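Our preliminary data section would be incomplete without showing what the modeling component actually yields. Below, a chain of 101 amino acids is followed by its predicted structure, encoded as C-alpha coordinates that our downstream tools consume directly.
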Amino acid sequence: MTDGISKLGRSAVEMNSSADKLKNNKSAPEATANSATAAPRPQANDEVILSKAAETAMTAGEFDEAKVAEIKQALAEGNYPLDERRIAESFVAIESMLGGK
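Predicted structure:
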Protein backbone atom coordinates (compact mmCIF):
# COMPACT_ATOMS: atom_id res chain seq x y z
CA MET A 1 0.00 0.00 0.00
CA THR A 2 1.38 3.42 -0.94
CA ASP A 3 0.98 6.51 1.22
CA GLY A 4 -0.86 9.26 -0.66
CA ILE A 5 1.26 12.02 0.81
CA SER A 6 4.82 10.71 0.67
CA LYS A 7 4.19 8.23 -2.18
CA LEU A 8 6.14 5.62 -0.19
CA GLY A 9 5.07 2.10 0.60
CA ARG A 10 5.42 0.56 4.03
CA SER A 11 8.44 -1.41 2.86
CA ALA A 12 10.30 1.85 2.16
CA VAL A 13 10.44 2.62 5.86
CA GLU A 14 13.11 0.63 7.66
CA MET A 15 13.93 0.46 11.34
CA ASN A 16 17.59 1.17 12.00
CA SER A 17 18.83 -1.28 14.58
CA SER A 18 22.47 -0.17 14.33
CA ALA A 19 22.21 1.72 17.61
CA ASP A 20 20.87 -1.41 19.34
CA LYS A 21 23.69 -3.49 17.88
CA LEU A 22 26.25 -0.93 19.04
CA LYS A 23 24.74 -0.86 22.52
CA ASN A 24 24.72 -4.66 22.78
CA ASN A 25 28.34 -4.96 21.61
CA LYS A 26 29.68 -2.76 24.39
CA SER A 27 31.04 -4.80 27.26
CA ALA A 28 29.59 -4.42 30.72
CA PRO A 29 31.63 -2.21 33.05
CA GLU A 30 33.95 -4.08 35.35
CA ALA A 31 32.94 -4.12 38.99
CA THR A 32 35.38 -2.67 41.46
CA ALA A 33 35.89 -3.99 44.97
CA ASN A 34 35.96 -0.54 46.55
CA SER A 35 34.12 2.17 44.66
CA ALA A 36 35.46 4.89 46.99
CA THR A 37 39.04 4.32 45.81
CA ALA A 38 38.17 3.66 42.18
CA ALA A 39 39.10 6.33 39.66
CA PRO A 40 36.11 8.31 38.40
CA ARG A 41 34.85 7.19 35.03
CA PRO A 42 34.52 9.68 32.22
CA GLN A 43 30.96 10.47 31.28
CA ALA A 44 29.62 8.46 28.38
CA ASN A 45 28.47 10.43 25.36
CA ASP A 46 25.18 9.60 23.70
CA GLU A 47 25.35 8.74 20.03
CA VAL A 48 22.70 8.82 17.32
CA ILE A 49 23.13 6.67 14.25
CA LEU A 50 20.86 7.59 11.34
CA SER A 51 19.96 5.35 8.45
CA LYS A 52 20.87 6.43 4.94
CA ALA A 53 17.20 7.17 4.25
CA ALA A 54 17.02 9.49 7.27
CA GLU A 55 20.23 11.26 6.30
CA THR A 56 18.92 11.79 2.77
CA ALA A 57 15.58 13.07 4.06
CA MET A 58 17.28 15.53 6.39
CA THR A 59 19.55 16.94 3.69
CA ALA A 60 16.78 17.20 1.11
CA GLY A 61 14.72 19.77 2.99
CA GLU A 62 12.66 20.49 -0.10
CA PHE A 63 8.94 19.85 -0.29
CA ASP A 64 6.08 20.57 -2.62
CA GLU A 65 4.45 23.68 -1.16
CA ALA A 66 1.49 23.36 -3.54
CA LYS A 67 0.83 19.79 -2.36
CA VAL A 68 1.02 20.89 1.30
CA ALA A 69 -1.44 23.72 0.62
CA GLU A 70 -3.76 21.27 -1.18
CA ILE A 71 -3.70 18.86 1.77
CA LYS A 72 -4.30 21.67 4.27
CA GLN A 73 -7.29 22.86 2.27
CA ALA A 74 -8.71 19.35 1.96
CA LEU A 75 -8.32 18.83 5.73
CA ALA A 76 -10.01 22.17 6.47
CA GLU A 77 -12.92 21.26 4.19
CA GLY A 78 -13.20 17.74 5.58
CA ASN A 79 -12.46 16.20 2.18
CA TYR A 80 -9.15 14.50 2.95
CA PRO A 81 -9.51 10.71 3.02
CA LEU A 82 -8.37 9.28 6.34
CA ASP A 83 -8.05 5.57 7.02
CA GLU A 84 -8.99 5.26 10.69
CA ARG A 85 -7.87 1.62 10.86
CA ARG A 86 -4.42 2.45 9.48
CA ILE A 87 -4.07 5.37 11.89
CA ALA A 88 -5.01 3.12 14.82
CA GLU A 89 -2.54 0.45 13.69
CA SER A 90 0.19 3.09 13.53
CA PHE A 91 -0.56 4.19 17.09
CA VAL A 92 -0.41 0.58 18.27
CA ALA A 93 2.97 0.15 16.55
CA ILE A 94 4.31 3.34 18.13
CA GLU A 95 3.03 2.28 21.56
CA SER A 96 4.74 -1.10 21.27
CA MET A 97 8.02 0.56 20.22
CA LEU A 98 7.80 2.81 23.28
CA GLY A 99 7.45 -0.22 25.52
CA GLY A 100 3.70 -0.19 25.99
CA LYS A 101 1.59 -3.30 26.14
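The radius of gyration is 22 Å. Residues 63-101 form one domain. Preliminary results of this kind motivate Aim 1 of the renewal.
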